[in-house]
Amino acid sequence: MYNYAWEENFIGVELFGVDCNKQKELFSRIGVLIEAPGLFPNMTAFENLKMKCISLGIKDDNYIHEIIELVGLKGVDKKKTKNYSFGMKQRLLYWKMKKAGIK
Fold it and tell me: Comparing C-alpha atoms, which of 33, 31, 38, 47 is closest to residue 80?
């Protein structure tokens, strides 16, 4: 059953101060961490981040080591990401999302 009274009183929804009807602007600022994250499973955290850095024009390997330490994966950065827990994958992807400007 559809509630017309709700529609008459609807004033809108905003995220980040943007009207949800302006989807293009809004969706460019939203990211989703999904169960099948965009990591290469047979590569290490360092190798995955290196691939992303290359695509962003970042050539400093020390930067990658800083990110690994920042997200709490120092010591397991040589382990293939297919052996990471879901939380470890999310932490690695968090950096990728932040670097892309996604909130």
Answer: 47
